[in-house]
Design goal:
Rossmann fold; 2 domains; Methionyl-tRNA Fmet Formyltransferase, Chain A, domain 2; six-stranded antiparallel sheet; 10 helices; 31% helix; globular; four-stranded mixed sheet; 14 strands; alpha+beta
């Protein structure tokens, strides 16, 4: 059960490992883009190319969908980047339902674990497989693997690393369940031993993406990295939204108010924070395409 590219890597790895995929469950097709052409999920496209049966329920509590699942007689259900399942679904297979989550649980439970780990300046994150239960991302942990976060890596780069690491961990988990060679660990047990409050990863909204220049430059830089390439951090520039995809830190006393900018109208555009500058590199002005700062400045006189 999955929808985006992140889930395709896991499905592909399971097939390569010789697992029998009796069916794939993914989101319904929907219109997208300017022409509103019907868009199929990445998981559906892959499944169709491999001749796998595809189920696309609109509602996961639908009785007809449940009956189709029962007929499949799956031993195990695997969830990667999908919707929240009702108990009647996750409790159906004899070996339960497992989920791959893009964090080191119980840290960063929620919808946007990769983004928040980078935004918060973490030096590492990882992937975790766990058994589904009632509360989201709280089930007993099966396996996990740590992945470092480089000082300049974006959420997009970490996404790609975790996608591949997670696929390998998922195969390891499924093989362990098949051979009954695993020991689930309660997240409550880990929480009891945790010294500090655990960070969460709630869904991102537009207000989370607005840059606050009244912060240290390093925090602003991490905010930009953590939202790149999607949904992208933004600021208001000449009364228009300006998305910032890549940037560099400049450790230099600003001498101007936070949010103010300096530019030579040719090669650089620097925004002031409270203790330094953010030098923007790749940006997108509202209504325009994504471009390098030089190209932007040639067409837009600040």
């Amino acid at each position: 059960m999955g929808t985006p590219d992140f889930a395709v890597a896991s499905l592909d790895a399971l097939m390569e490992a010789g697992c029998t995929i009796v069916a794939v469950v993914t989101a319904p097709d929907k219109p997208a883009g300017r022409g509103q052409k019907i868009h199929e999920s990445a998981v559906k496209q892959y499944a169709v190319s491999k001749g796998l049966e595809v189920l696309q329920p609109v509602k996961l509590k639908d009785h007809e969908f449940h009956e189709k699942l029962k007929l499949l007689k799956a031993d195990l259900q695997v969830v990667v980047a999908f919707r929240m399942l009702p108990e009647a679904v996750w409790n159906m297979p004899p070996k339960g339902t497992i989920n791959l989550h893009a964090s080191l649980l119980p840290k960063y439970r929620g919808a946007a674990p990769i983004n928040w780990a980078v935004i918060n300046g973490e030096k590492e994150t990882g992937v975790t497989t766990f058994l589904l239960q009632h509360e989201i991302d709280t089930g007993n942990i099966l396996f996990s693997e740590t992945v470092p976060i480089g000082d300049d890596e974006t959420a997009g780069a970490i996404h790609d690393k975790l996608m591949l690491t997670g696929a390998g961990l998922l195969v390891k988990t499924v093989k362990a369940i098949e051979s009954e060679n695993y020991t689930p660990v309660s997240q409550d047990q880990i929480l009891t031993n945790a010294a500090a409050e655990l960070p969460h990863a709630p869904k991102l909204f537009k207000e989370d993406c607005l840059i606050n220049w009244n912060k240290p430059a390093k925090k602003v830089y991490n905010h930009i990295r953590g939202l790149s390439p999607y949904p992208a951090a933004y600021t208001i520039f000449k009364e228009k939204g300006l998305k910032i995809y890549t940037a560099e830190l400049l450790d230099k006393e600003p001498g101007i108010q936070p949010g103010g900018f300096l530019t030579d109208d040719k090669t650089y555009l620097r925004f002031a924070c409270i203790d330094g500058f953010i030098c923007v590199k790749e940006i997108q002005l509202e209504g325009k395409k994504r471009m390098g700062v030089g190209e932007f400045l040639r067409g837009f006189r600040a």
